[in-house]
Amino acid sequence: MSIYTGPVFEMCRNQFLQIADHLQIGPDERDRLLYPKRAIAVSCPIHRLDGSVTLYQGYRVQHHLSIGPTKGGTRFAANLDLGEVAALAVWMSWKCALAGLPYGGAKGGVAVDPASLHPQELEALARRYMQEMIPFVGPHTDVMAPDIGTNEQVMAWFMDTYSMYQGRTVTEIVTGKPVGSGGTEGRREATGLGVVHLIGRALEKLGQDFSGRSVIVQGMGNVGGVAALELHRRGARIIGAGDHTASYYDPKGLDVEALLAHQGKHRVLAGFSEELAIPSEQLLEQPCDVLVPAAVERVINGENAGRIRCRILAEAANGPTTPEADKVLAERGDEIFVIPDILCNSGGVIVSYFEWVQDLQQLFWHRGEVLSRLHALLDRAFEEVTSRAAREGISNRMAAMAIGVQKVRDAKRIRGLFP
Ligand code: GLU
User: Fold this and answer.
1) Can you say whether residue 315 is alpha, beta or left, with left for phi > 0 and alpha for psi between -120 and 50 degrees?
2) How far, in Å, CA of 186 to CA of 371, rounded?
3) Statement: 7-185 belongs to CATH 3.30.160.250
4) Measuring CA to CA, which residue among 314, 267, 60, 30 is closest to residue 151?
């Protein structure tokens, strides 16, 4: 019996069981490796502008403390629940371990649609959430970051709330802050740029380059939007793009800059063009060289996996492909080169780690240094994953997860049952 329920946690559990079988992990170790060290649920009441009070449910799940503090984003999304947060925390553990970062995984968030709040209400909620988390987080305990629905401003509010409580400025309590408030150069773009860097490595493996490659990006937020623009700059053709309000498709290539300008003005893609609009569920199914799911979990599933038509699947989102979809993709045998999520989107947490290190030392790096260190860590992880996959005859996803789980397992074995 577990408090972690729902389809996203179930998906994560199924993935873990596959890896546990592959690594021949015995029953004694399985629960300890999968289930989080602790989970915190808090109530966050705020005054609304109309004078009423609304209570929002907040969560933070810390998966393990065997390597160092826990690390992970904070998601503000309407349907967020504990099972989803826990799955995202587990994936963060494997992601950090794969990248070689000295962290366990965490994730948190609030069940709220941030677009439904006035900026003052959003500030009140962000501050209240951090206030509730103060007993459970710290620069050497658990370090938050942005995720879906949060941004640099929210991180600055978190940092300020924690700092006021401590009576001094503690920039190292969160990452993804504005550069002027202890943030690092390159963090905002890091996830998207990391995705593009790894697509480059995958293209190289296939004997190709960016020039003229057709790309579809599902989700044009901080990750998908940056990736689309960078891919366009490198000569790829963005033939499809969508967010939760609209999707567009043009085999000749969309005007990415115009699309992002529209989004900048209206916050959403809806209203960009009538002729180019396609139903959102069809976006992922259009033929392309590179498909980039950059939104939420489980968009490629047992039902639609048979209709995905790409050469490279670059998983910028967390958990976009279900184990059922993996099975269909493997059975099709038509060789989609998958860059699995815990590798593909790890640029974000890697540069978060750089931000934390810089804050602790109060010694700041220039953008070139951040990006070259980012590329070095991504290249090492890419190499480890692809060579293990080839050596053991397993998928890139299995290889990535096996490396992550094995590193957490080794750390736990050496330390014993406590952390
Ligand atoms: N939320 C991001 C992720 O899922 C970033 C986490 C971080 O920077 O700590 O990887």
Assistant:
1) beta
2) 7
3) no
4) 267
- Token pair 């800059």 is found at 257
Does residue 70 have its Cβ closer than 6 Å to ligand 1?
A: no
> Ligand 1 within 6 A of 109 CB?
no
Question: Could you tell me the mean pLDDT of each successive run of 10 residues in the chain, 419 residues long?
Answer: 92 98 96 97 98 98 97 98 98 98 98 97 98 98 98 98 98 98 98 98 97 97 97 98 97 97 97 97 97 97 96 98 96 89 98 98 98 98 97 96 98 90
Residue ranges of the chain assigned to CATH 3.40.50.720: 188-344
107 is catalytic: yes
Pairing of strands 53-62, 104-111: antiparallel
Reading the block at residue 172, the tokens are 């190292």
Q: What is the third-level CATH fold of 188-344?
A: Rossmann fold (3.40.50)
Output the DSSP codes for 228-243: HHHHHHTT-EEEEEE-
Nearest atom (ligand 1) to Cα of 95: 10
Predicted model pTM: 0.97
Q: Is the Cβ atom of 74 under 6 angstroms away from ligand 1?
A: no
Atom 7 of ligand 1, residue of closest alpha carbon: 349
Cβ atoms of 298 and 84 within 8 Å: the answer is no
Residues of the chain with CATH 3.40.50.10860: 7-185
Confirm if 386 and 396 have CB atoms less than 8 A apart: yes
